[in-house]
Each structure stands twice: as C-alpha cells, then as structure tokens.
Amino acid sequence: MQFCDDCGSMMRTAGDEMACTSCGYTEPKDEQLAERFVSTAEQTTDDVIESTEDANFEGKPTADDVTCEACGHGEAWYTIKQTGSADEPPTRFFKCTECGNRWREYN
Question: Which residue among 5, 6, 17, 88 is the active-site one?
Fold first, then answer.
C-alpha cells in the first residue's frame, strides 16, 4: 500500500500514476514499488451480510439456543455483523422462523 504524502489516505493506481482518492494528490508510479503491490478482486454481494428490515433471512444458518419474545418459538435464522470496533464482539441479527419477529443480540 502507498499512502498520500499530503493527507495520509491510501492511494490507488490511476494509469501510470498513484492518486489519492481523498485529496486528489497524484505522483508518478514507482515501478519497483508497484511490483510489490497485490491487487484484490472487488467484494461481491455474496459476502454482504444483510441486516436491514427487508433482508431475506431464509436460507441463512439457524440458531436453536434462542427464544423469540413475540411467540416463544425456539429457532431463528441469524446473520452476524461487526457493528462496533474490531476488538468488540460481533452483533447477531435474528429472525424467528415461526412468526418473522426480528431482534438483535449483543455479546
């Protein structure tokens, strides 16, 4: 990774230059340095965890260690999302397989 000398943000390749996406600073690409860079593929939508109200939880993993407060059923689909900083535990989002009630659990 190469960082901007002006603002410290990560720079990206733009043709034969390195460009800062934050402040617009550019500099010629150092070919020796560029050989050490690794490009990664873009994230696909398969990797996205849906936690919105209209998210489709069906087909997600199920948890049988929970109880729905709305109907008392003991099974729910769930997804996990890191909602705090990296050193905090993730949040689990649930949807009851019986009544569709949604809730979250902070560990």
Answer: 88
